[in-house]
Design a protein that fits this description.
244 residues; mainly alpha; Arc Repressor Mutant, subunit A; Tetracycline Repressor, domain 2; 2 domains; 0% strand
Length: 244
């Protein structure tokens, strides 16, 4: 059998057809979520729109949880793509705006443009759904967080991050953060990990307030408020990490 340029065998006709059908199911389910909200997702309705039976849909996704998991992973990947694209094109018009701030604005822009998918990721959990441990959703979420980790800490040494100025971490928290460390270059010392979670909560909280309409009284100034908050957050974070 011939192989493609990457050395992998080409997909068979059956595999290509399955990939197309899977993509159509995901796109249709995503449209249902966009139009009706995540809690209204129905396998029967998705199958009906595609002109197939629910039993036929089960050949691609054995149950509702499997379909939801695939949609969440796809949404996380789309969000990560938006954040990465924002930092990759930062030089095209952001001026002297720090890349980390540009990354947060990419996150905010995607959330505002896709409120229903953002709600699926971070809103009220779907009843009776539990994401598989270390599954597709976990890997997709880690990929997105790594973009922020790189922009936030990529220019610091490991020694600087380990010496970051944080309130004293309890032995229990420090031990837990040590357990969360990944093997390889993405691992963070506990003080830096604590700063990352704090910054993530600050950014995400502002985006949630805006997406769910709690900052509407700010009007058209929400983007300016967000940028100012992210600039201040980054300045304070950098001040906690000692100079090389």
């Amino acid at each position: 059998m011939t192989t493609d340029v990457d050395g992998a065998p080409p997909l068979s006709l059956r595999e290509r057809r399955r990939a197309v059908a899977t993509r159509e199911i995901l796109d249709t389910a995503e449209r249902h979520i966009t139009e009706q909200g995540p809690h209204a997702l129905s396998l029967r309705a998705v199958a009906r729109d595609l002109g197939m039976t629910v039993q036929a849909l089960y050949h691609y996704f054995p149950n509702r949880d499997a379909l939801i998991t695939a949609i969440i992973a796809k949404a996380y990947d789309a969000l990560a793509d938006a954040v990465q694209e924002a930092v990759d094109t930062a030089h095209l018009g952001a001026g002297d705006l720090p890349r980390m701030v540009v990354a947060t604005e990419g996150y905010r822009s995607w959330a505002i443009a896709h409120p229903e998918l953002f709600q699926l990721l971070y809103g009220t959990p779907l009843r009776n759904y539990a994401a598989p441990v270390d599954g597709l959703t976990t890997r997709a979420m880690v990929r997105m967080s790594m973009v922020f980790q790189h922009e936030m800490f990529g220019h610091f040494t490991r020694e600087q991050l380990a010496a970051a100025d944080t309130p004293p971490l309890s032995p229990e928290l420090r031990a837990h953060l040590e357990l969360l460390r990944q093997d390889g270059p993405g691992a963070l010392p506990p003080p830096a990990a604590a700063l990352l979670f704090s910054a993530w909560g600050h950014m995400h909280g502002l985006v949630v307030l805006e997406v769910f309409g709690h900052l509407s009284f700010v009007g058209e100034h929400q983007a300016e408020i967000f940028r100012m908050a992210m600039r201040n957050m980054l300045t304070e974070l950098n001040a906690r990490i000692p100079a090389a």
